[in-house]
C-alpha cells in the first residue's frame, strides 16, 4: 500500500509556512446544510484529495481512493480494532483443512446497489479481472498467492486456475503455497466483488461505481470537486450508514481544507498540516483524534554496497539516531520512535523487538570503530524529492555527524519516478528513506515484502536486497502454522534475525490526526487509516 | 484587414505544431519512469508495468511516440492520461474554471486599474496620485502566495464576506481569488495608464482639443485616454494569455480545480499527453490574444494599418 499524498506536494510544502497564520480564529460552526438530529439521518462532508485512479477497488491502492471505495464496498471480512478477522462482511465462513485449499461461503441476501445479488461469480470474475495485467490494475499483485497467478502474468492464461465457483454462494480458492492468514488477506480492496454491469463498461463504472457497501453513488464522481454518496437502503450488513448521505469534497491543498474545517464548511479531515497540530488540539478539543496507524518509516541500507555490508555499521547508524528528538522537533509528535520492525497495531508486535533501535551514542560510536567503517567519506542519505522528507533526513544526518563524527550528503533531488528505479538497479549509495504500511493486519505483511529474498525488486519492495534463507524459512513455516500463536512465534523469530542483521532501521511509527466539526459525532479511524463513514452520525 | 487576420491565423498552425514537438520532446527528456512511479512505495507488478508502457508507447523512440500522438490528434483525440481519462475531458473540466477566474481577474485589473491610472495621471502629484503610487508599490512587492492567504483568512474566515475556498457559490466564489490574482497586474495597469496619460496630457493634440473648448471629460476620454491605451492594451492582452495558462498558487489556495493545477500535477507525474495537450492550448491562447491586441491597435490608433 502506498500513502504518498501525491497532489501538488511542492505547492503544499510552500504553502505550509503560511499556514501558521491560519492557526488562529474561526469558531463559528454553522454546519454544511444538515438538519437531521438525534439518531440517523443528515448529511455530512468529508475531506478527500483527488483519487489517483478510477473508483474501481482492484485499482485503488492509495489512501484517497481507498476512503471512497470503502464507503461504497464491503468486503468478505472486516477487522476488529485489534486487527482480528471478523465475519461481519459478505463471507459466512472461510475454511481450509490444509491452509492451501480454501472454501469461501457467502451470506445470502447481499445485493449490489443496482439490485443484482452478490454471488460467488461476482467475486471470482472480479479477482480474475484484477489479476490480469492486460487490465493494468494497481492492486493486481495482492492476488499473487492464488494458484495460476504467474501464468496470468506471463500471458499464458487469462483466468486464475486456483479459483472455482461451486454454487451461487460458494467458491474455492487454491493457493500456490499454504498460507494460514488467507482470511485476513481477502479483507482488502483487491478482493472486493464486482457486479456484472462493471464488465460491460469499466470506464463508466469507474466514474459512478456500483458496489455493495453502506453508501451508494447516485451521481458521477466529478474530478477536482467530489461526489455525494447516499445511504444504501437495502444494505445487508450490520454496519448500515447512520447518516443519509456523505459529501466527499476534493481539496488540492490540506491547508485550505483545514481553514475550511475551522469555518465548519467541511466536517471531517483526516490529514492535518503538521504546523497546526498543536493549535488544532486546543481548538478542536475532543474533536481532535489521534489514531495509531500501520505505517512505519524506515532508514534502509544498501546491503549490496561494500560500505554497508557489515551489520555492525548498520546497527551503529541505527543506534546513533535519536528518534525521540526528531519526532518532537520535526514531526510535532505525529511520528513516534519505532522500536520494532512491525507496527504496534498488529499481533506479533513486541515492544523493543528492535534492540539496536534504542538511542545509545557511545555504544554506536564504539561499534562503528570496531567495524572499521571509513569515516573520511561522507554518508549519502537518499530520499525522494517533493514529499517533505528534507527536514527529517537532514536531522538524521546531523545526528550521525554529532554522534558518530560522520559527514553526510543529502541526495534528495530525485522524484519518485527516478528514485525507485535507481534503488531497483542497486543505485542507492547510502542509507535511504522507505515507508511501508500493511496490506492486512499481520506481522507477516511487513516481513515478507520487505525482508525476504523473493521480494527483491522488481517483484517486491525489498530494496535493501537483504537475503537470509533462515528468515524466508521461518516466515514460510509461520505461513503454514496450525494456529495463530504458533505463527506469531515463528514470525517473531524471523524478526529477531532481521533485528540482528538490520537491513533497514525502523525509525518512526506514524500517528494519524483528524479533526471534525460539532456537526458530526462517532468519528473513528480504522486500522487502514480510513474514517469509518458508516458509523458517523450527524448532530 | 481580413487577409491580415487570415494570414496570422494560418501562421498559428506551424507555430502550434512546433510548440507541441518542443513540449513533447521536453516531457520525453524528463528522467525517470512515470509508470514505475504510479505505484508509489509499493511497486506495480512487472507485467502491469509492461502492459501500460506498451499502451502508451513509452518503449518507442520519441518520433514514433509523437507520430502516434499526431495521428490521434487528426482524429480529434488528444489521448488519455496514464489512468485512462481522456485529456479532452480534463480540459473540458478545468478550462471553464480558469476562464471564469481570468474573466473576473481581467475585469478587476481593467476597470480598477484604468480608472485609478487615469485619475492619478490627470492630477499628477496630487494626494490621489501618491496614494496610487504607494499602494501599487506595496501590492507589487507582496508575493501572491502571501496575499492569497491573507485575503483568505481576513475576508474568508474572519469577516466571512467571501467563501473560503471551492466553487460552490458560482461566480461569487471567483471574486476573492480573482481580486488576488488581478492585484499584481492591476498595479501595473494603473501605473502604465498613469504614465501614459500624464505624457499625453502635454501633447499638442490635447492642447488643441482644449483650445477648441471641448469639455474636459471629452478631452480626457476621447483624446487622451484612447491614445494612451496602446501600452495598456498590449499588457492586458499578454496578461490574458498568461492568466489562461492557469494560476497555480491562486487555484491551489482557493481550491479551484483549474488548468494551472492540472498541468502542474501532470508535469510532476510526467503525464506527457496531458502536458502537451494543455500547454499547446495555452500557446494557442497566447497567439490568439496577441492577434486581438494587434487588431485593437488599429482601432485605437487609426494611423496603424494592416494590409
From TrEMBL, chain A:
<dbReference type="GO" id="GO:0015833">
    <property type="term" value="P:peptide transport"/>
</dbReference>
<dbReference type="InterPro" id="IPR039424">
    <property type="entry name" value="SBP_5"/>
</dbReference>
<dbReference type="GO" id="GO:0043190">
    <property type="term" value="C:ATP-binding cassette (ABC) transporter complex"/>
</dbReference>
<feature type="region of interest" description="Disordered">
    <location>
        <begin position="27"/>
        <end position="63"/>
    </location>
</feature>
<protein>
    <submittedName>
        <fullName>Peptide/nickel transport system substrate-binding protein/oligopeptide transport system substrate-binding protein</fullName>
    </submittedName>
</protein>
<dbReference type="InterPro" id="IPR000914">
    <property type="entry name" value="SBP_5_dom"/>
</dbReference>
<keyword id="KW-0732">Signal</keyword>
<feature type="domain" description="Solute-binding protein family 5">
    <location>
        <begin position="90"/>
        <end position="454"/>
    </location>
</feature>
<dbReference type="GO" id="GO:0042597">
    <property type="term" value="C:periplasmic space"/>
</dbReference>
<feature type="compositionally biased region" description="Gly residues">
    <location>
        <begin position="33"/>
        <end position="43"/>
    </location>
</feature>
<dbReference type="InterPro" id="IPR030678">
    <property type="entry name" value="Peptide/Ni-bd"/>
</dbReference>
<dbReference type="Pfam" id="PF00496">
    <property type="entry name" value="SBP_bac_5"/>
</dbReference>
<dbReference type="GO" id="GO:1904680">
    <property type="term" value="F:peptide transmembrane transporter activity"/>
</dbReference>
<feature type="signal peptide">
    <location>
        <begin position="1"/>
        <end position="23"/>
    </location>
</feature>
Automatic annotation (TrEMBL), chain B:
<keyword id="KW-1003">Cell membrane</keyword>
<keyword id="KW-0812">Transmembrane</keyword>
<feature type="transmembrane region" description="Helical">
    <location>
        <begin position="228"/>
        <end position="254"/>
    </location>
</feature>
<keyword id="KW-0472">Membrane</keyword>
<feature type="transmembrane region" description="Helical">
    <location>
        <begin position="171"/>
        <end position="192"/>
    </location>
</feature>
<keyword id="KW-0813">Transport</keyword>
<dbReference type="InterPro" id="IPR000515">
    <property type="entry name" value="MetI-like"/>
</dbReference>
<dbReference type="GO" id="GO:0005886">
    <property type="term" value="C:plasma membrane"/>
</dbReference>
<feature type="transmembrane region" description="Helical">
    <location>
        <begin position="274"/>
        <end position="300"/>
    </location>
</feature>
<dbReference type="Pfam" id="PF00528">
    <property type="entry name" value="BPD_transp_1"/>
</dbReference>
<keyword id="KW-1133">Transmembrane helix</keyword>
<dbReference type="InterPro" id="IPR035906">
    <property type="entry name" value="MetI-like_sf"/>
</dbReference>
<feature type="domain" description="ABC transmembrane type-1">
    <location>
        <begin position="95"/>
        <end position="297"/>
    </location>
</feature>
<comment type="similarity">
    <text>Belongs to the binding-protein-dependent transport system permease family.</text>
</comment>
<dbReference type="InterPro" id="IPR045621">
    <property type="entry name" value="BPD_transp_1_N"/>
</dbReference>
<feature type="transmembrane region" description="Helical">
    <location>
        <begin position="131"/>
        <end position="151"/>
    </location>
</feature>
<dbReference type="Pfam" id="PF19300">
    <property type="entry name" value="BPD_transp_1_N"/>
</dbReference>
<protein>
    <submittedName>
        <fullName>Oligopeptide transport system permease protein</fullName>
    </submittedName>
</protein>
<dbReference type="GO" id="GO:0055085">
    <property type="term" value="P:transmembrane transport"/>
</dbReference>
<feature type="transmembrane region" description="Helical">
    <location>
        <begin position="97"/>
        <end position="119"/>
    </location>
</feature>
